[in-house]
Specification:
With 76 residues, the protein is of the alpha+beta class. 32% of the residues lie in helices and 22% in strands. β3 and β4 form a beta hairpin.
Length: 76
């Protein structure tokens, strides 16, 4: 069954500040029952990146930690 990601203003703003890219867009799908099915889609001017929450090291109780982990997963 398809999963649809929604635009994430907070994640987009965070990644734009960290990368300096004004064209970056971030989308997220959060499955409250199956965290391993949750993911981010990050779209830049020349590529689209899919990052599963299971690929990110983060503190489960902190959305900020999740965003920082997303940045590390893609850019470090």
């Amino acid at each position: 069954m398809p999963k649809y990601a929604n635009a994430s203003a907070e994640a987009t703003e965070f990644l734009r500040k960290k990368t300096g890219s004004s064209q970056l867009e971030c989308y997220t799908y959060i499955d409250p029952d199956q965290a391993e099915d949750s993911f981010f889609i990050v779209k830049t001017s020349n590529k689209v990146t899919h990052v599963s929450f299971s690929e990110i090291t983060y503190e489960a109780s902190s959305y900020q930690s999740l965003l920082e982990g997303l940045y590390r997963a893609i850019y470090e």
